Amino acid sequence: LLLDCVLIVTSVVPPELPMELSLAVNTSLAALSRYAIFCTEPFRIPYAGRVDIACFDKTGTLTGEDLVVDGVAGLSLGQSGATAEADGAQSEVTAVIDTGLQTTLVLATAHALVKLDEGDVVGEPMEKATLTSLGWTLGRNDTLTSKALTAARGASYATTPDAVQIKRRFQFSSALKRQSSVATVVVTNRETGKKVRGTFVGVKGAPETIRGMLVDTPPKYEETFKYFTRNGGRVLALAYKYLSKEQEIGQNRINNLKREEVECDLHFAGFLVLQCPLKDDAKKAVRMLNESSHRVIMITGDNPLTAVHVARQVEIVDREVLILDAPENDESGEKLVWKSTDEKVNIPVDPRQPLDPEILKSKDLCITGYALAKYKDEKALAELLRHTWVYARVSPRQKEEILLGLKDAGYTTLMCGDGTNDVGALKQAHIGVALLNGSEDDLKRIAEHFRTTKMKEVYEKQVQVMKRFNQPAPPVPVLIAHLYPPGPTNPHYEKAVQREAEKKGGPGAVYPTPAANGHSDGIETVMSPGAKALQQSNKAQTLEEQRKEKAQNAAASLADKFTSSMMEQEDENDPPTIKLGDASVAAPFTSKLANVIAIPNIIRQGRCTLVATIQMYKILALNCLISAYSLSVLYLDGIKFGDGQVTISGMLMSSVEGLSKERPQPNIFNPYIIGSVLGQFAIHIATLIYISRYVQRTEPKRADVDLEGEFEPSLLNSAIYLLQLIQQISTFAINYQGRPFRESIGENRGMYYGILLVTGVAFSCATEFVPELNTKLKLVPFTLDFKITMTATMIVDYCGCWVVEKVLKNAFSDFRPKDIALRRPDQIEVEEKRRREEQEAADREKERALEAQIEALEAKKRS
Question: Is residue 16 part of a domain?
Fold first, then answer.
């Protein structure tokens, strides 16, 4: 009895459940790796299927890392005759290389670039681009020299810089929003020819911050920088001052300077304007998330006007945007206003009062870090987070607080970033995704280099083995033939050289040829032991060996196969390596590619995993309940299954491309899942009880049931077997979760044909359509009345379970997205119109392709 109870309990708690759950997660991991996405915390994959809010950093995430320097604006502020816009903003941009001496010195010194001992300059891409455009180079010990200071350009300066050296840097701070440098400058007075050493301060930072440090703010200062930020430019204010013009200040005094002493009483030197183009797939990825009812928001430390411009480009916002920020010339530091991007609207706001519902309903909102700090401990903060689309000028700490606030509101969050300032937010989000600055070409080159290195190592081992036994070196594999000198043991040399030349320089390019002595420019492997063995074999080559060249060519193919098999064995033992940054360490998901489309791919696989997990729970629960009933109640009636019957029943035992608006069920503890399992189980038990009693009326129960006896065919055994077979079919077919989250059961060909096959077997046996099959399965002959009753019971069982599933699914399942992700009717209308236009364009393209094929066939017939 104890053993029987243990069997029942182990059947109810299936041992295969952990394995199947792990299989579902591992399948998603493998699918993500094909997109160059790697996960360090696989348990987070199902969370990706529940994402409500997708948060993106701007620079380096939605926009590229490579900044384009437009030039310097605002150099003519306050001067008459300068080109100006309607609001007085000066729109003229001067090329960086044509700016004045002070502006040039600020651009050359106010940066954090460092030159390594190896000669590489490291630092922010923006600062690299600026220094390159300026025509200056950074040397050792922070010295700077100008390559672009031509005689014509130098003639416009009263003094010409001869040498510049940065003595001290005050690094950029997200809180201070500026950086500065103290440098010594050696200049030559063009009138007197006298050289003067001075100490120069260059400051660069946010225009709003630098404004308060200027001695005299030029007119239309704010209008000018806002003009460029509205048009998507990244704008930095430049300022300077001289600590000393006649003599150099000593290093000790410079080291004792406080930052406040340096960054004050400055003079305006212009606005540096940079453009950061969108990534190619940014708009497509955001559109996919929008159309699948995800809330997409931007969290950036950049200027709010620039952030709003980029958000409109990628369709994060599509209505008029109001920015919550401090009013102009606010002395108290306590006031807030809603203002439009053109500043024609200004609405005062009290953080202690509820938000205006009309604004929340009709406008898209942008909030600055300053305004967010004012709402930190206010009741209206939750409502503000609920309706905000763009966060600008926020610190890394505020990014983290935004994610915490959204999580506390009950939303599942995703954060995508690429830099150190995103680390806190990546840790706090349910799904953190770090984007590395890689491309598909980079990955191909890395993989090719890895494969070449592996093959070279394997070949060197082969050469050593052959040399040990005084045998000639084996043929060089095709992949590395260009690394070794030509010869009879390198029959693929010419093809390999041509292949490498075309890779690097296109058709017709020439690849460097290894010299006769075994050396080749830029190829380290030629003087390896394998290469030396090749040289020795070439020198000792005789006429007889030349006759064997054809045989060696044939052996080369065999050697390639052998080498490839050895490489595959070694590859399995070597784990992939990823060059991580700060964001990659913090985020559970890392994409080697810089593609934003990684986010929809992660969400797609998360939904697939979540749906598969819930499906497994339902199917295993039903199978376990049925098995428990069979092992207990039916077992007492002496019911057993034959080997053939178990084999047939055991035959029963990928994600879609698009994202749907519907959401998978978040967990199994809801009325739909529990009700569906219990309802289907009730129908299965009812049909089992009915058919067993029907059989007992037809064939009386034997009084001497031998529970330990061998299997003997009987009417009750045959009826219960066929009924449980159709129950297994219905369990898989009805509870299969297909569209819109995964491929439908019809698209899953293996399962589809398997279910059709077993269904055909079940009904064929119930009707004795193929008597030989019944005999093979050890089923007893059936009467006509029993055939009708059995077939009807099987149909009722299947249809009843289908009805229970559909009714409970429609009544209790909640596939709707959260309120924060719901789309407005006008947005849905625009999306449907766009889909119709895309479908019409695709149809027209198909028609054109078909017409082209017809014309080609007709032309072929005429010819």
Answer: no
- 90 and 237 in a single domain? The answer is yes
Helix ranges (H only) for 321-380 are 357-362, 369-374
Of 493 and 837, the structure prediction assigns the larger pLDDT to 837
Q: Are residues 588 and 39 in contact, defined by beta-carbon separation less than 8 angstroms?
A: yes
Residue finishing a domain among 248, 275, 302: 275
Q: b or e along 534-564 (b: 16 or more beta carbons within 10 Å of the residue's beta carbon)?
A: bbebbeeeeeeeeeeeeebeeebeebbeebb
Are 270 and 285 part of one and the same domain? no
Find out whether 198 and 184 touch, Cβ atoms under 8 Å: yes
* Pair (316, 252) in one structural domain: no
Measured CA to CA, the distance from residue 22 to residue 8 in angstroms comes to 25
519 and 662 in a single domain? The answer is no
Q: What is the spatial distance between Cα 214 and Cα 237, in angstroms, rounded to a whole number?
A: 11
Express as a percent the part of the chain with pLDDT over 90: 8
* Domain tally, the chain: 5
Global confidence as pTM:
0.70
300 and 270 in a common domain: no
Domain range holding 208?
68-275
Token code pair at residue 325: 């920020």
Beta strands in 557-712 (DSSP E): 589-593
- The model's pLDDT over 558-569, given as tens digits with 9 standing for 90+, comes to 445 544 544 444
The tens digit of pLDDT for each residue in 446-457 reads: 777 777 888 888
Q: Stretch 674-680: mean pLDDT, rounded?
A: 86
Tens digit of pLDDT for each residue in 417-432?
887 778 888 989 999 9
Between strands 388-392 and 364-368, the pairing is parallel
Residue 561, phi then psi, degrees to nearest 5: -65, -40
- Token pair, residue 831, equals 């999306």
What's residue 53's pLDDT? 92
2 inside domain: no
We report the CATH number of the domain holding residue 332 as: 3.40.50.1000
3 state SS for 521-585: CCCHHHHCHHHHHHHHHHHCCCHHHHHCHHHHHHHHHHHHHHHHHHHHHHHHHCCCCCCCCHHHH
Q: Cβ(266)–Cβ(215) under 8 Å? A: yes
* Domain end position, chosen among 207, 242, 275: 275
Q: Which residues of 739-766 are buried (b: 16+ CB within 10 A; e: fewer)?
A: ebbbbebeebeebeebbeebbebbbebb
Task: Tell me if 119 sits within 8 A of 257, measured CB to CB.
Answer: no
**How many Cβ atoms sit within 10 Å of the Cβ of residue 688?**
22
- Do the beta carbons of residue 323 and residue 340 sit within 8 Å? yes
Q: Is the domain of 238 the same as that of 102?
A: yes
**Same domain as 350, residue 231:** no
Determine which of 238-242, 307-311, 782-786 has the lowest per-residue pLDDT on average.
Answer: 782-786
Count Cα neighbours of 123 within 13 Å in the Cβ-side half-sphere.
Answer: 19
What pLDDT, on the 0 to 100 scale, is given for residue 578? Answer: 46
Q: 24 and 616 in contact (C-beta within 8 Å)? A: yes
Give the active site residues.
Answer: 57
Tokens of 541: 């080559």
Is 41 among the domain residues? no
Q: How many helices (H) and strands (E) does the chain have?
A: 31, 22
- Hey, which of 133-142, 210-219, 649-658 has the most confident mean pLDDT? 210-219
**Which residues in 361-501 belong to E strands, given as ranges?**
364-368, 388-392, 413-417, 431-438
Q: Has residue 734 been placed in a domain?
A: yes
Q: Provide the pLDDT for residue 858.
A: 87
Judge if 528 and 647 occupy the same domain.
no
